[in-house]
Design goal:
InterPro entries: Chloro_Bact_Ser_Proteases, Peptidase_S1_PA, Peptidase_S1_PA_chymotrypsin, Peptidase_S1C. The protein is an alpha+beta fold and about 230 residues long. It has a domain at about 45-115: Beta Barrel (Thrombin, subunit H). The chain is about 25% helix and about 35% strand. It contains five helices and 13 strands. It has helices at about 1-30, 35-45, 80, 215-220, 225-234, and strands spanning about 45-55, 60-65, 75, 85-90, 95, 100-105, 110-115, 140-150, 155-170, 170-175, 190, 195-205, 210-215.
């Protein structure tokens, strides 16, 4: 009788330990969810204030961008850098990076990739960058947009994915309620895990407070996106 009780107790203990291990393993595999404060703290340094200059140095236009690799590959909206004669960027800490080169773009999708020069005053470790999301966004998912609607003054806004894939003027767009202002074009839309889920493109004029976002598959398809695909595979 005592042996049966001991065997039963051992069986229960094994089940409890096994269940705890599975639970702990599941917790370890669950991505950390961030709020807006965390998202900005983790990603703000990767967002660029972009200035488009005429050859004489006068200002032509402004926009935003986001760094996607330690080598300085960044994404923006094509309409921000279209026919740019000279591009320079400013990091959140005030460092100016110039000249910036356009390495790939698609006018139809409005996606563009730019390459930053060697980081001024850097420590040899390269740029801070933000990881790219590899899966499609979902209806109702919380997202955050970061950009520069005012010179050298970044802002962050919060909203949801209104549609993960809407056909707008012959091209697929993510729709979001995260507020977008002029100057934020080219900035990142991040998911609650801190990954870039899209690039700000513009606003939908037929609906109030619904804004257009370029999907990251369109960015990955651009010439020069090898670094993104390499980081995806790591």
């Amino acid at each position: 009788m005592k042996r049966k009780i001991a065997a039963a107790a051992l069986c229960i203990l094994i089940c409890l330990v096994s269940g705890t291990a599975v639970w702990m393993n599941a917790r370890a595999d669950t991505p950390v969810v961030y709020n807006a404060e965390d998202i900005y703290a983790k990603s703000g340094q990767t967002v660029l204030y972009i200035r488009i200059l005429w050859e004489d140095g006068s200002l032509k236009a402004t926009g935003s961008g986001v760094i996607l690799s330690p080598e300085g590959l960044a994404a923006t909206a094509y309409h921000v850098v279209k026919e740019a004669e000279r591009i320079e960027g400013t990091l959140r800490d005030g460092r100016v990076v110039s000249p910036i080169e356009v390495v790939g773009y698609d006018e139809l999708t409005d996606a563009a990739l730019i390459r930053l020069p060697a980081l001024p005053g850097g420590n040899g470790e390269g740029y801070d960058y933000v990881p790219v999301r590899q899966t499609a966004v979902l209806y109702g998912e919380k997202v955050f947009a970061i950009g520069y609607p005012m010179a050298n003054t970044p802002i962050i806004t919060e909203g949801i994915v209104n549609s993960p894939s809407a056909e707008i003027n012959g091209r697929s767009r993510i729709l979001t309620s995260a507020q977008i202002a002029s100057g934020m074009s080219g900035g990142p839309v991040l998911d609650r895990f801190g990954r870039v889920a899209g690039i700000v493109s513009g606003s939908l004029r037929t609906m109030n407070n619904i804004h257009l976002v370029i999907g990251m598959d369109d960015v990955r398809a651009l010439p020069g996106a090898e670094a993104i695909r390499r980081l995806d595979a790591e």
